Design the sequence.
């Protein structure tokens, strides 16, 4: 069985995109291998964030993992910063990824574009180095992510190839994998843009009240015409809503088109809102119970211990391979 690993960065509020593209899927596949799911808190420092927000967001993600059904008995749930091997390995691996390739990362380019060139943190630039270390430390082969993270996983594959060519078979080759439906949930106000934590317009946040979620869906931008049809090019708004509906109900697109034949956008939006609320109501209730219990701290403490064992083994293997003394 292959090791599975993924993580979420505790910046901003989690969205329905994170839920469909990542969290729900982690829970679905967790028993298919040794699974490691973490909170990428060191990554959150790559853009300015208040200490209090970072702490609260980190706790929230742990609680959301548990609320979605990640079981600490089968999945190691931990905070990245609790396992120092991530940082130690990054200092070594930064020598094996090149500035040229890092500067071609879409996410870096998007973020840097909005910033003053003189004040872009080195960490933002080097982000994929740390992310590659997150992956290789756990000998992970399967990396379930949304579409926006695939390029980073591809870069990690380049690193593994480069490192193993130079030092022999040391690191395990990972592979990004995405959900069949929902790898890129789009904004409800602009369906040509990804739904994201840093762009509050048109996004459904997991922390939204259920009636706010319903309102956002009912006022989602739709397209010309009145047909419920999956056609990303000509009907991006309806296609996005269909994707959300399909991901939550398991219904295929053809089935959905049939279900809403002769019906209007209003009927369809109501059904999408019902599906979202059906899923979110029990999920949010579990989250509330978990966040007010002591479970999160317990799980993270136990998770860090388990994660450290395998991470330290990999780190030692790398240190030895490159010739660091006394390892
Ligand atoms: P992050 O925190 O931006 O997003 C967490 C996960 O949610 C997915 N996602 C989406 N999926 C579908 N539709 C959307 N609109 C949407 N928005 C986000 C992301 O693709 C991701 O899978 N760098 C990572 C965190 C990370 C990581 C890792 C992931 C750090 N180290 C190692 C995997 C392996 C990030 O910032 O994801």
Sequence:
């Amino acid at each position: 069985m292959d090791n599975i690993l993924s993580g979420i960065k505790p910046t901003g509020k989690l969205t329905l995109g994170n839920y469909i593209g990542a969290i729900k899927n982690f829970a679905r596949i967790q028993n298919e291998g040794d699974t490691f799911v973490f909170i990428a808190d060191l990554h959150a420092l790559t853009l300015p964030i208040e200490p209090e927000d970072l702490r609260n967001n980190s706790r929230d993600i742990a609680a959301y993992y548990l609320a979605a059904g990640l079981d600490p008995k089968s999945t190691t749930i931990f905070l990245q910063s609790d396992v120092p091997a991530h940082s130690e390995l990054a200092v070594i691996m930064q020598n094996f990824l090149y500035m040229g390739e890092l500067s071609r990362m879409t996410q870096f380019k998007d973020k840097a574009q909005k910033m003053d060139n003189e004040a872009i943190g080195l960490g933002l630039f080097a982000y994929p180095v740390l992310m590659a270390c997150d992956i290789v430390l756990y000998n992970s082969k399967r990396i379930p992510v949304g579409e926006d993270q695939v390029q980073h996983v591809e870069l990690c594959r380049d690193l593994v190839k480069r490192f193993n060519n130079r030092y022999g078979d040391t690191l395990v080759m990972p592979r990004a994998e995405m959900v069949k439906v929902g790898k890129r949930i789009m904004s409800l106000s602009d369906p040509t843009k990804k739904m994201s934590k840093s762009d509050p317009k048109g996004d459904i946040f997991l922390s939204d009240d259920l009636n706010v979620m319903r309102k956002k869906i009912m006022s989602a931008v739709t397209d010309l015409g009145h047909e419920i049809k999956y056609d990303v090019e000509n009907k991006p708004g309806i296609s996005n809503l269909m994707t959300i509906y399909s991901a939550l109900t398991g219904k295929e697109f053809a089935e959905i088109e049939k279900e809403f034949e002769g019906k209007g956008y209003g009927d369809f939006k109501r059904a999408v809102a019902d599906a979202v609320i059906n899923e979110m109501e029990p999920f949010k209730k579990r989250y509330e119970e978990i966040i007010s219990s002591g479970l999160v701290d317990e799980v993270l403490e136990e998770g860090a211990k388990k994660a450290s064992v395998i991470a330290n083994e990999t780190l030692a293997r790398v240190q030895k391979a490159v010739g660091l003394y006394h390892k």
Q: What stands out?
A: The longest helix spans residues 295-322.
